[in-house]
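Hi L., both proteins are below.
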Amino acid sequence: MGTAKILVVGGVQGQLKKAFEKISKLQAKQNFNLVLIVGDLFGQDDSSHSEELELLLQGRINVPLPTYFTVGDLSFPEKVKAKLEGDDDLCANLFYLGRKGTMTTTEVVKIVYLGGRLVQNEASLTQKLGKCDPLYLDNDARGLHGAHSAHILVTNEWPANITNGSKIPLPEGVKGDQGTQSISNLCQALKPWYHFASSPAGVWEREPFKHVVDYSSLEELAVTRFKALPNVSAPTKEWMTAFSLDTSRPPPTVEPPGVSPFIRSSPPRKRQALEDQPYSRYANGGQEGRHYKRARRNQNKDPNDCFMCLNKPGAKTHLVVSLGEESMVTASRGPLPLPSTFPQLSFTGHVMIIPYYHAADELAQGKRSIEEMANEFKEMNRFRKALSTMIGTKSQGQLGTVCWEVNRTGIRHHHWQLMACQAEQVKKGLVEAAFKVAGERHEYPPFQPCDPDSLLPQRSDYFRVWTWVSDPVETADHTNGNDEKDFGVAKSMYFPLPNEQRFNIWFGREVMAGLLQLENRVNWMDALLRKDGSEQLAEEEDAQGLRTDFEEFDFAMK
């Protein structure tokens, strides 16, 4: 078993320089294990992209990591066909998988792929399909059933009926009724964890869905996440998607998965053993996957309320700025500061550090080990330090930071909030005093000091706050190259939350609103950003500002 960081890219359609330059920039920050291209890598065989193709074949376009492609809708250019007749490696790090087959990576990620378009009238074929033909037969799809399982299924076409039961609308120009039954049957047979397909006009991702199993089957419940990626030339920028895959366990779902969209479709036909042999690029391509039990959820919790989970349908993924191994950094929805509060920064100054682990899962799965919690804390604390360093550096020491955590049994998803504040307020103890006075006013337990770089002795039910500040001289030294060690002064304090005591989960925001004299923005719903009447447009702008400021300090994306 292993873990792999995977980048999936939509159809490139001959825009090779644009695509691989973007991939190279991401790879320099993220260190992916591999790239999968869905759809057409090349465009029409004409002069429009011939220069870029020539550069690629000569090795003058950098392909920074192993990148795999199959056929899409279009035939390959003649130069590509000629090169692939004798070799599947088009150039360094760029590999042609073939029209169909399976591949198991060194991280033990099992990938099944089927490129091209379905031949609707097989009787019309005058010769056997060639290695590079952008077509497939129903028999090709059925032959892949013998792979039995897959972590990732990649197809050019959509499965028929995939939109059934989904509440996610299709983007303009995207038609969901053109899928094929052959791919529906393949998806049902393999029950992949992820299924990616091509969608030239726009991105579409449906809710995760569970597969139907026979009553006599011993298989555990299997869940698939389907996403269709647009071409590089599509108006949307969402032609790439990245994720980490741990082959030891299926990715968790935020809410109970939906019903299979294929219920009304014909079940995959059983084949004889000889016909069930999968096409494989590597000798271990037929290795069977494993199934894992899903923990029963606490039925009293509505997971739709957990807007922090990325795999929740409709998640605000445009807020995400950085993805680590255990946690992520996002811009804050409804930030407390105004866009004009901290002119030294390119964003509002309000950030979220969110662990991937869903707090409510402990109710179903039992308590995590101290080691798991320590790894999560270590990375989140590293994000806290990096964000603080960024804010201190960008402001030349004029700003410090305040970070707080509400850890309360019953909260669906714990998280940390980090905000910029005036450095003088931290240095003079005004921030610490404000929290203590507010705590006394609410009759909360007194604050106790704690090590800012350590987990608390109690694993839950507490409120914790960190303050951080540097000074201009120290910031200048850091900027001039001394960036390998922590700098600035961090302090932390906390108080326990007795089970019987009521607690205002907006306590941290309430205190900071008083310090900023923005009491009318305590409720995040009263502080939603808007630009030209659009919340998302304003939030995207804020996230991009944070991304720009944080880029050189972001250890997770390097």
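That was the first. Here is the second:
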Amino acid sequence: METYSWFNVLAVLFASFGLDLDPDPTSPEYGWTNTVISCANGLFFAAGFFGALSTGLISTKLGRIKVFQLGSVVGIIGGVIQTAATSAGMYLAARIITGFAMGQIFVVVPVWTGEIAPPHFRGIMAGMHGCFVNVGYFMANWIGFGCFWASGTSFGWRFPNAVIVLWALLLLAGTFVIPESPRWLVSKGREDEALQILFRLHRDTNDPQNSFAQQELVTIREQIVEDQNQQKLGGRWQLFREKTYRKRLILACMVAVGSQNTGILVINNYNALLYQSLGLSASEALLVGAGYNTWAMLANFGGAFISDRYGRRKLLLIGFISNTSMFVVATGLLARYSETPTRLWAGLALTFLFLYVFCHGVFIDPHCWVVAAEVFPSHLRAQGTGIAIALVTLADVLWLQLAPTAALTIGWRYYLVFIALGIVHTIYFWFWLPETSGLALEDIDMLFGKIPASQEHRQKDEKHEARDEKREAAATSEVVA
């Protein structure tokens, strides 16, 4: 029987916590120009691109935990420099360092959580990635709101940056407790260590022999041997050469980038400026922004808990349809407010922005990162997920760099781009997004036209048994004759 222990849950929660505690540079206490704000966001995500790409190679060679450790150390260095910055230039340099760390952690979390979670609970456990990104936003916004009242001193912006260092220190300490991915260990021939971790992950008092963990080890070993044989034939560029892997890469990129093409990060990163454009004061804008991200965080947790019950495909389709629909209405109300700036239109626009982030939180955010990681085989999972997340950071750079200028020139019309992209992603998912929930990682190959190694071995054994039975029957007939 498939089982999981609280060790699974605690390990995942710890690794995911605080993924986006990075403070919002648009908050009033920074007092920076749109140019500096744009650079701070752009450099952060541009560096994240390189951090994400580096993760595939490092985690495949050295392990998932080593990436956690490296990302934590880099994050600590960047956070300290950010906190101690004495000029905009120094702060921007630190943003490059923290952005690189973000890219690494952002890739390895869904890869690692997917690899330690059992199939029927992978949605909720790996979905914690999206949930705790929003916990980070939640904490950053409330810290920003509190520090606004100290905006006359450097504490108003230094303290939010110092929190990054605290989280990175906690994550670094935790890497000496949380387990390495058993799939990575098996790929390096360390099966005894992998089995001990599987015992801890799937401990069940009703299964004293740990039969599920032992069977999972066999399945993992068979699939990894098959993957490594295929990798020798496909070479270094197997992810791009073979059609089955190209399909998975495109799907992972469409799911991951699609979450950002909804416009969610533009709203999150520029919420203080957006709310002030609706007539709110600086403190009111920060308070509404904190409430917005609290609402988003709660929606994410709700979404993660239904991921395995209703399936990733259904939830993502509902999400992109509802999210885009809410954004259509919100954009229309923002347009109306630009013509008739009354509290009625501002209030309605805010209401639909809250509905918009609710749809994103329940139906998109917890599930997109799960799919982006689980569609790849073990030997390509870090590389493929790294590429998908790298493209996410490029999309973030594009949308965030354009946002300040767009707000001043075309205003609400900028959001029409995200509405159009939401429609494109919905159509793509309708035709090409398979259902992955409930399947073991090794069995997802079937969705892309490949027979899992365990099933292939069973088929071979059945053929051999059938052939042996025929021979025995023939021999018996000869004896009787």
